[in-house]
Amino acid sequence: MHVMVSCRHLELSADQRQLVEHKIAKLGRIVEGMERAEVHFTEERNPRIAERELCEVTMAGHGQQIVAKGAAIDPVAAVDVAIEKLEHQLLSLKSRLLARKNGKTHKESSPTV
Question: Over its length of 113 residues, how does the chain's per-residue pLDDT go in tens digits?
Fold first, then answer.
């Protein structure tokens, strides 16, 4: 999986960037075929906001695009929040893809007359 990390209004150290890339790459194991991930970090400029570090992760593959946002005090914690959301979305996507592959469909309610 190709992981691209970008920052706006803040700097990530090389260790933090490598840690983020490693954590996001691990998510590619949940659903095979996720081709790329983009991680965008921004910092809120409003001093009243406690969780100023924002992280937005966009994963693409299988004709699907999954987006999750997380906010925390530091960038690594913001990534962890976004990863929790992504795991839930990826597991849901995986179950939908497996159901489609196995030919299972949702039950339709009978029409009322």
Answer: 899 999 998 888 999 999 999 999 999 889 888 899 999 999 988 888 888 999 999 999 878 899 999 999 999 999 999 999 999 999 999 998 888 888 876 666 566 65
Distance CA 70, CA 23 (A): 14
Adjacent-strand bridge partners of 55: 41, 70
Picking from 6, 55, 1, 65, the residue whose alpha carbon sits closest to that of residue 27 is 1
Q: For residues 47 and 70, what is the distance between their CA atoms, to the nearest angstrom? A: 18
Residues 6+ apart with CB under 8 A from 41: 5, 6, 7, 8, 10, 12, 53, 54, 55, 75, 78
Lookup: tokens for 83: 């990863």
Residue found under tokens 């987006």: 67
CA distance 65 to 58: 7
